[in-house]
Design a protein that fits this description.
By secondary structure, the chain is α+β, with helices and mostly antiparallel strands. The chain has one domain. Helix content is 37%, strand content 21%. The chain has a four-stranded mixed sheet. Strands 2-7-3 form a three-stranded antiparallel sheet. Strands 4-5 form a two-stranded antiparallel sheet. Strand 4 and strand 5 form a beta hairpin. The longest helix has 33 residues. It is globular.
Length: 265
């Protein structure tokens, strides 16, 4: 599995007072929208009859993509638990695991093919530009923080919101459910848990919305400085690849980062 060898900050997100006003207005709209949906969201969670079976399958890549998107404050919380970010984060990428005999497996060839598919996001230095971060996974697709023996999370108190709210997630239509054996395991989700999950879902929507607005408002001028998907970009990318190096430029609401991978680690 490829590992990060270097993370460096290229630019901080500049302060934009006009952008701050827009963010405040957008967040107020979102809060009002969520307030109107609170009862229906709670009802969906309650009626799902969810109880965690502590099986750890949600942390494994048992059936489908189990990528976990990370916000900057979630990365900081995990770091505060005693882990270096370069040991648990990746640039946000499409799924690059294969499934063989119902088992996930990492293949370097599949990973490289996925990188080549991102040519439209590759600049003249051969760096792939992406927006946001995700948790690293093991070669079998399981979360890097899943204890393989106990099937317990090693960062349970600092786990990301996506994990806290599983198997529930939201889109424009409301609350949706993932495949999970804990759904329907009891008649009705316990009231305390249902309220906690609903609150966490709403907080996640607000956090995602805030991060998206802050990032999109602030990085436009930075992103537009680069030239993408030309012959120079392809040559530089392949030159780096021969050296077993892949470089990324990652944007989030705190800044712009350059990330270097060693594929042969």
């Amino acid at each position: 599995m490829a590992k990060i060898s270097k993370i460096s900050k290229l630019e901080s997100i500049p302060t934009d007072t006009s952008g701050s006003t827009r963010i405040e207005k957008e967040l107020l709209k979102m809060k009002q929208l969520l307030a109107g949906k609170q009862k229906s969201m709670l009802k969906t969670v309650e009626s799902a009859g969810f109880s965690c079976l502590m099986c750890g399958k949600c942390c494994e890549r048992a059936e489908d993509d189990n990528s976990v998107y990370l916000l900057p404050d979630e990365i900081e919380k995990i770091e505060a638990s005693g882990f270096l970010r370069e040991n648990f984060i990746l640039p946000l990428l499409p799924d690059f695991y294969e499934t063989e005999n119902e088992t996930a497996i990492f293949k370097e060839s599949t990973f490289i093919d996925m990188l080549h598919s991102l040519s439209e996001q590759t600049d003249e230095e051969g760096r792939i530009h992406t927006f946001g971060w995700m948790l690293q996974r093991n070669d079998d697709g399981s979360c890097i923080f899943l204890n393989s023996d106990s099937k317990k999370c090693m960062i349970y108190e600092a786990r990301p919101a996506l994990c806290r709210t599983y198997p529930f997630f939201t889109d424009e239509s409301g609350v949706l459910k993932c495949e999970c054996e804990g759904l329907g395991s009891i008649e009705k989700t316990e009231p305390i848990l249902a309220n906690e999950l609903t609150k966490a879902l709403q907080e996640r929507v607000l956090s995602d919305h805030t991060d998206y607005i802050q990032t999109s408002v602030a990085i436009k001028n930075i992103y537009d400085k680069f030239e993408f998907n030309n012959e120079t970009a392809r040559i530089r990318f392949n030159e780096n690849l021969i050296k077993n190096i892949v470089s990324f430029v990652v944007y989030d609401s705190t800044g712009v980062y350059e990330v270097e991978f060693n594929i042969d680690q």
